[in-house]
Fold these 2 entries.
Entry 1:
Amino acid sequence: MIVAALLLGLIAFIAVLRILRAERVARRVASTAQTALRVMSDPDTSDDEKEREVRRASVTLLGLFLAIAGIGVAALGATAAVVWGGAQAGLYSLDAAIAVASSWPFLLGSTVGAVVLWLALDRLGRGKPAPESRETADRDAVPYGPMEQALHNFAFASPARQKRLGALETRLFRRRIDPERSARPVFVTSLPRAGTTIMLNAMAGLPEFASATYRHMPFTLAPLLWSRIGPIFQQGAAKGERAHGDGLEVSGDSPEAFEEMLWMAFYPDHYRQDRILPWNVGHYDQAFAEYFRVHMAKVVATKPGARRYLSKNNANIARLPLIEAICPDATVLVPVRDPRAHVASLMRQHARFLDLHAREPFGRRYMEGVGHFEFGAALRPIAFREGAPGPEAATGPDFWLRYWIDAYEHVLATAGRGVVFVDHDAFCAAPGAHLPLLAEEIGAADPAQVAGLVPMFRAPGPAPVLEGADPALLTRAAALHDNLCRRALGAGAAQYAKEATA
């Protein structure tokens, strides 16, 4: 009878917590704390603004503390009322109930039971059909809970801290780090929406290549260390569509572009408020070069059997000569897409992320934290030329067309011998003709495995009409695109593919 009464009291405790929405209050505590942390660690925020934010956060946290304390008192009161009522009814003595409640078998069993009950109620709640809402869409686009967001904010607050953690990892795991595993890396780079992600996903599936994955977040400069600690904090690896809304699904094991955090840690002066400054050979830093090569070897060590590093980093098109100086044995793949389709996709994503960032501030903090400055409120265009417009001008097709032209003119002017252009449209239209050529360019261990990637590629649709675009810019972009494609991998096969799909 005592155990039954105590279990009933436990149910009452959980019921009060859920009725009074204790979880929602706890989420507000985490959200308020992480917002204050972000402001305090922002070097661009004045001391006065930081002080005001701390005061606001302190008042809010005090109110939330009182709320959570009141909920706790109410929940404990409900439990006490149940147990006391049973004792008053003569079913057992209060002393006997306290003795059972404080015994370790009951404490252990009740704890496990409470967790199971809470999770079961959550599952039942999720199983109820509900209309699609903007809040649900935001959670899908930014699939991190309050505690994970707080962890990300802590990691993003200091690139220098990330760098020190990576150095510590190097000392701890020195026996697992083989310098030979940083030899012959492959870098995939271009403007975003050029086909870099599909190229990364295809090649990351090959046994010889290893790439950073979502499991390495948010401490991406310590992949070996965090792969051991991270699972304690991370959610499950269930697949879901990424925030771009382009149909590509990602999970914890999916490769992604997290390399930029390394560049941010060593070259902070290149990241201005409204733009990113390109790199050249004069920016060579021996300490960075050594750190980078060790980092590549560490990423490869996270995948059993892998021997080579693979990355996708869109910003690498702004530092091709420096990459060649650091990694003269590298292959740099630069997919090139029809400028009309490419610009239309860039505009679509920019609008999508502007909307998301306005509704979900963590979405912007996440993109800025990992160095993705391509879209939305996080946009910081790379200044490929003097006088290039800033993000405030990104309101129509002409901005993106000029950006497209500036980017690929810069690439043509700086590309070294290790750069391989890929005509994305022709490649996707005839992957069977291009994949053997790609295998040869990258020096694949098993060309047959590369040739087997054909099912991952789909022929693109017709290029859209860019309404309102400057005809002169369209003409310049088309001529530049033709020039790039003439230099691309398997130009003959590309021409055949274009004629076949015309």
Entry 2:
Amino acid sequence: MEEKAALLQNDVVVIGLLISILYFIFYLENSGGNLWQRFFKFFPPILLCYFLPGILNSLGVISGESSQVYPVVSRYLLPPCLLLFTLSLDLQMLKKLGIKAVLVFLAGTLGVILGGPIAVYLVKMINPESFNAETWKGLSTIAGSWIGGGANQTAVKEVLMPSVDLFSQSVAVDILMAEGWLAVLLLGIANKDRLNRFFGGDARLIDEIRDKIAAEAESKSKNPAFIDLMKILAVGFGGTAIAYLCSDAITPFISENYPEMAKFSMTSGFFWVVVIVTLIGIILSQTKVREIEYTGASKIATVFLYILIASIGMQMNLVAIRDNPYLFLVGFIWILIHALFVIIAGKLLKVPYFFVAVGSQANVGGAASASVVAAAYHPALISVGVILSVLGYAVGTYAGFLTAQLLRIASGF
């Protein structure tokens, strides 16, 4: 039977619709009304950015399968998005935070890397029918999301290419578990004094960091001029061009001489684009180029990211989410293992609860959720969440691919 054509088939109309949806989501979130504040507590903006386009796709208003929006957005906006996020990596600020904050963050990363394969192994013993030769590919995108963020998740997706149904299920697991864990962490902030005593951390350190960050932000930030915006785009897309040039040389060489590396995704051109563009971002973050962060580099990257999220959403098959409930059990065990890692690290290192909560969300939730947790302490601390999240962007893609291979092994394929 021939598939019914979508109501809107012009991609210019589709991209305009998606960006308008994004605007209204964030407009309502920032409107300040009590009703909308309560609404977004239960339905966070990122959830709507995924699922509203998915609903339109399911209703036949738009078609993720026939549209070229996602292929274009993922190829043209994802690499500069990764580069601009990674560019804001501030090693000096990481030093100010101290090695303990970074170690708690890395403990959370390790919890994601090991937690996924352990969860798959346990659930497979309960119900092996829930896993096939492709399931690990969808679950790997969760690893990209929980170590870095949406951009890293898409990078892993583009390399491994899980089916639309499998990716839809994985996104649902990702959001449900990540937002549930965020709620737990925010509840902990309401009891931060008791938790600080449990972890044995000195909360005065947080006050000192808050004051230093507030002073630095006030002295360096400025409103961007036209030339500043052009420089941001030149760095983002120029770095992307270099990454594609290098990928075009590396991929044929490996495919021809080392075809066995295909199972590790090293014969994928986009794999090398992502690896190289992230490396460029890390290198540039140690130069004066990183000063474009003070004129809005990460804000432009965030715009790219949410356009990307909406284009992913329009490919989702919402009906497929109910087809494999055991994947939600995988996600639940996975997030518990991550939580165990950060709690043990926080206890052993005797850090304030702030570092446990923000370090965890810098992994699982990315910059947006880590900023929410940090802001619950004080708005001046938002940059702490962002800085640790940028560290996640820097390692998220690499760690995501490592986790993918562990998931493949745990799945028995």
